[in-house]
Design brief:
Elements (H helix, E strand, L loop, with lengths): L4 H19 L18 H29 L9 H29 L7 H16 L10 E6 L5 E3 L14 E6 L7 H18 L1 H14 L31 E2 L1
Parallel strand pairs: 1-3
Antiparallel strand pairs: 2-3, 2-4
Helix pairs in contact: 1-2, 1-3, 2-3, 4-5
Amino acid sequence: MALDSHTRAMLLHETRSLAVRLAMVKPFALQETMLPAAALLPMAQSAIDRFLVIGRRQLRHLLHDFLRWLQQSASDRATPEEAQRRFTMLRLRFNVVLTQFDLFSDVITQRSENATGVWLGGLDVVSADALELPGYYQAPPIICYLDRDIGAAIRRARTRLPGGGENPVAIVRVPRERMVGAGVASSLVHEVGHQAAALLDLVNSLRPVLKALQRGSAASRIPACGTWWTPRACSRKRAPSSKRRHTIS
């Protein structure tokens, strides 16, 4: 069955609605209010906005291409199932763009909170200083936020985000209770160390050494974890929650 006028009108309306909703998503620099001391470091701010702008631009082109296709004679030969399938893929892509926006929005919105934003600005500076290692790698931007959890965690830069694309910044989650006492410094630098280890490829360099030790005379003292070893996998085998791909302290 060919695409009828009612189905075409419905898809046109829904696609235009997505385009209008997409146009309402603004860069964080135009909507977040915060003290200068609480603001993201310029490199982190530009990296996040650049990543999100590219995603919105690509989706906008896909929406306009679909609208043109619906209004051309080529769509007359398409079935409603095919048109619905193409629209569904656009909806999925639209949800990915909003999910990635919300991921960074949850982090940045805290900068507007009284006192909390200034604390986070200070943690950003400490994290960037701890990650700096001139001559070995180009340190990515890094930002921090507070949340309730049992330990600190990091979503490393240059890892895959939900829906695709590389994370433009490292995101460190700090438990709110760690902000009282001396534990915040050790937790923060520990998580930053995971990013540094990934940039230096330390895990892959240690894996063959562990395998060699397992085959040698010291095998009885080395746990059989050389094939899946991570900096603390031997002491914690349970994987982090799939909702957030963090490395948990």
